[in-house]
Amino acid sequence: MFFKLPWFKAKTKAETQLETQAHELDFLVDEFCAALADIADPLTIRMHAALIAVQTPKDLWFLRGKLFNLIAKHHCEKVAHERVSRLDQKLRFFVDHHPHYSSEEMPTGPMGLLH
Q1: Mind listing the pLDDT tens digit for each residue in 13-42?
Q2: Tag placement on the chain: N or C end, fewer CB within 10 Å?
C-alpha cells in the first residue's frame, strides 16, 4: 500500500547509474586529496578548492602537474612520481571503463612534459 505513494517510487536504472558514476568521479577526487593529506602548505587549500570544482577526468589530468610539484616540494621527486603514477593508473582505468568518457579525450605523454 505504501509503495504506491509517489515518493516511494523505485529508482530507475538510469538514475542509479548516474549516481554511481558521480560517486566514481568523487572517488577519484578523494584519491587526489589523499595524495595531499600529509602536506601542510597554503597551496594545498587552493588545490583542494580546485579539486572540489572538478567536473571531468580531464580536469583532474591537468591538475596532476601542480600536484606533482607540490609533493616534490615537500617530499622528493621519487615520492611525487610514485603518488602521481598511482593516480594516473586509477584515472586511466576510470576513463577506459566509463561509458561517458573516452580515452581520446585525455591527453597522453610522460609526466615529465607537464612540469
Answers
A1: 555 555 555 557 888 999 999 999 999 999
A2: N
The angle that helices 42-52 and 57-74 make with each other, rounded to 10 degrees, is 170
Rounded Cα distance between 81 and 20, Å, is 30
Exposed/middle/buried for residue 52 (C-beta within 10 Å: 0-12, 13-18, 19+): exposed
Residue in the structure block whose three cell numbers are 595524495? 35
pTM over 0.85: no
